[in-house]
Design goal:
The chain is α+β, with helices and mostly antiparallel strands. It is about 30% helix and about 15% strand. It contains four helices and four strands. A hairpin with a 2-residue loop joins β3 and β4.
Length: about 110
Amino acid sequence: MDGTRTNNGLGDLIARSDIQNRFPFLSKKALAELASKGDGPPYIKAMGQAYYRPADIEEWLMSKMVMPGQKSSDTVTDLKAKIESPPVKRGRGRPRKGDTRSRKTA
Protein backbone atom coordinates (compact mmCIF):
# COMPACT_ATOMS: atom_id res chain seq x y z
CA MET A 1 0.00 0.00 0.00
CA ASP A 2 1.43 3.41 -0.92
CA GLY A 3 -0.29 5.48 1.82
CA THR A 4 -2.45 7.46 -0.63
CA ARG A 5 -6.14 7.34 0.13
CA THR A 6 -9.16 8.89 -1.50
CA ASN A 7 -11.92 10.24 0.71
CA ASN A 8 -15.09 12.11 -0.30
CA GLY A 9 -14.55 15.86 -0.01
CA LEU A 10 -10.94 15.51 1.04
CA GLY A 11 -9.29 14.37 -2.18
CA ASP A 12 -6.12 12.32 -2.04
CA LEU A 13 -4.65 11.97 1.41
CA ILE A 14 -1.00 11.07 1.91
CA ALA A 15 0.14 9.45 5.13
CA ARG A 16 3.04 11.23 6.79
CA SER A 17 5.04 8.01 6.60
CA ASP A 18 4.65 8.03 2.79
CA ILE A 19 5.14 11.74 2.17
CA GLN A 20 8.54 11.31 0.46
CA ASN A 21 6.93 9.30 -2.35
CA ARG A 22 5.18 12.49 -3.49
CA PHE A 23 7.48 15.20 -2.08
CA PRO A 24 11.04 13.77 -2.03
CA PHE A 25 12.51 16.80 -0.26
CA LEU A 26 10.15 16.53 2.75
CA SER A 27 10.80 13.92 5.41
CA LYS A 28 8.27 12.50 7.83
CA LYS A 29 10.61 13.51 10.68
CA ALA A 30 10.72 17.14 9.52
CA LEU A 31 6.93 17.28 9.20
CA ALA A 32 6.49 15.72 12.65
CA GLU A 33 8.87 18.28 14.19
CA LEU A 34 7.11 21.16 12.45
CA ALA A 35 3.72 19.90 13.64
CA SER A 36 4.96 19.64 17.23
CA LYS A 37 6.01 23.31 17.04
CA GLY A 38 2.64 24.38 15.58
CA ASP A 39 4.15 25.01 12.15
CA GLY A 40 4.05 23.16 8.85
CA PRO A 41 1.15 22.30 6.58
CA PRO A 42 -2.26 21.44 8.02
CA TYR A 43 -2.89 17.75 8.54
CA ILE A 44 -5.63 15.35 9.55
CA LYS A 45 -4.97 13.09 12.52
CA ALA A 46 -6.87 9.81 12.34
CA MET A 47 -6.20 6.33 13.70
CA GLY A 48 -2.85 7.37 15.14
CA GLN A 49 -1.55 8.61 11.79
CA ALA A 50 -1.18 12.07 10.25
CA TYR A 51 -2.52 12.57 6.72
CA TYR A 52 -1.88 15.50 4.39
CA ARG A 53 -3.69 16.81 1.34
CA PRO A 54 -1.21 17.52 -1.48
CA ALA A 55 -2.86 20.89 -2.10
CA ASP A 56 -2.25 21.91 1.54
CA ILE A 57 1.42 20.94 1.31
CA GLU A 58 1.83 22.87 -1.95
CA GLU A 59 0.11 25.95 -0.47
CA TRP A 60 2.32 25.79 2.63
CA LEU A 61 5.44 25.47 0.47
CA MET A 62 4.38 28.49 -1.61
CA SER A 63 3.99 30.53 1.58
CA LYS A 64 7.68 29.82 2.27
CA MET A 65 8.83 31.15 -1.09
CA VAL A 66 11.64 33.69 -0.91
CA MET A 67 11.98 36.29 -3.65
CA PRO A 68 15.44 37.21 -5.02
CA GLY A 69 17.05 39.87 -2.85
CA GLN A 70 14.71 39.10 0.04
CA LYS A 71 16.08 37.81 3.34
CA SER A 72 15.40 34.10 3.70
CA SER A 73 13.81 34.79 7.08
CA ASP A 74 11.27 37.15 5.49
CA THR A 75 8.88 34.71 3.84
CA VAL A 76 5.50 35.87 2.59
CA THR A 77 3.84 34.56 5.77
CA ASP A 78 6.42 36.21 8.03
CA LEU A 79 6.10 39.56 6.26
CA LYS A 80 2.30 39.45 6.52
CA ALA A 81 2.55 38.76 10.26
CA LYS A 82 4.97 41.66 10.71
CA ILE A 83 2.60 44.03 8.95
CA GLU A 84 -0.47 42.89 10.89
CA SER A 85 1.07 42.82 14.37
CA PRO A 86 1.52 46.07 16.29
CA PRO A 87 5.06 47.12 17.19
CA VAL A 88 6.29 46.05 20.61
CA LYS A 89 7.40 48.85 22.92
CA ARG A 90 10.64 47.99 24.58
CA GLY A 91 11.70 49.49 27.88
CA ARG A 92 15.19 50.59 28.74
CA GLY A 93 15.80 47.41 30.68
CA ARG A 94 17.65 46.93 33.90
CA PRO A 95 20.77 49.01 34.51
CA ARG A 96 24.03 47.18 34.10
CA LYS A 97 26.23 46.56 37.06
CA GLY A 98 28.37 49.62 37.62
CA ASP A 99 26.24 51.85 35.35
CA THR A 100 25.43 54.96 37.38
CA ARG A 101 23.85 56.97 34.55
CA SER A 102 20.38 55.46 34.91
CA ARG A 103 20.27 55.18 38.71
CA LYS A 104 18.60 57.82 40.79
CA THR A 105 20.43 59.03 43.84
CA ALA A 106 18.52 60.10 46.93
